[in-house]
Amino acid sequence: MRTLPRLLVVLVLAACDPGGPLSRAGDGCGDGSADARFTCRVAQRLAARIEPLEIEVVGPLELAAELGDENRVSVHLDNTVADCRAIPERCEDTVARLASALEDGIRSASRGPEPAAVRAMLKSSDWRDERRRDAPEANDLVTRPFLGDLHIVYVEDRPDSIVMLTPSALSSLALDLPGVHALALENLSTACADFSHEGVPGTPLRRLVAGDSYEASRLLLPGSWRALAGAVEGALVVAAPARDEVLFGAEADVAALRRHAAERHATLGHPISTTVFVLRERGFEVLPE
Question: Which of 110, 121, 153, 284 has the fewest C-beta atoms lying within 10 Å of its C-beta?
Answer without folding.
Answer: 110
